[in-house]
Amino acid sequence: MPSTGPRIALVAVVALIMVASGCTGRAAAPATTAQPATSTPAPTTRAPTYSGPEPLTAAELAWLAAIPKFAVRAGNAFAESEVLTPTRLRSFASLLGSCRRQLAPKLPSSRLRPVYMLVVKACVEFDKAAACFATAAQLDIRVAGSAGDRAFRRAIKCGFAGQRAGQAALGEAMKKGDQV
Question: What angle do CA 32, 34, 40 make, to 5 degrees?
């Protein structure tokens, strides 16, 4: 007669396998709560996309390039002249008065608004300077110390102060433009 020890061991192993796999021969009890499936998303192999601002357009770049060109012209006009004749003063007034027409006729784009606002500020200062230089060009300064001479000196001082303030604002605009 064969030994019953190995048979019992075999039956026990088969029973454990059946219980572990859910094959008990009984009907399965209905589940009372559904467990959400949890799975880890598969890692993506796509390269990250750039979500920064779009590159500047050609028109925006051209407008930004016009700012230092105007600043250089305005600075050079004053550097070239030592004698302030009425003709030269009218030329200064014309150049500085052209800022708004050349640089600020309209907003180039909404993202350049901070730069544009500084350019407008510069043009306001240049308009003041232009008015002062135009006034100085019309004054009679033949007699030193006369009322005309004093008015001329005030107008020249006003013109150069406006020119410096306009140049400073254009400098800020160029720095801000470099940040865009």
Answer: 155
pTM of the complete model: 0.68
Give the integer Cα–Cα distance in Å for 118 and 137.
28
pLDDT tens for the chain, 180 residues long, are: 455 554 444 444 444 444 444 555 555 555 555 555 555 655 556 655 656 678 989 999 999 999 999 999 998 887 766 788 899 999 999 999 999 999 998 888 889 999 999 999 999 999 999 999 999 999 877 778 888 889 999 999 999 999 999 999 999 999 999 988
Q: What are the CA-CA distances from residue 139 to residues 126, 132, 135, 143 (Å)?
A: 20, 11, 7, 11
Give me the amino acid identity at 166.
G
Query: Which of 118, 97, 108 minimizes the C-alpha distance to 175?
Result: 118
Residue pair 103/72 in contact (Cβ under 8 Å)? The answer is: no
Q: Which amino acid is it at 74?
A: A
Which residue, chain included where needed, has tokens 């160029």? 174
Half-sphere CA count of 159, side-chain side, radius 13 A:
27
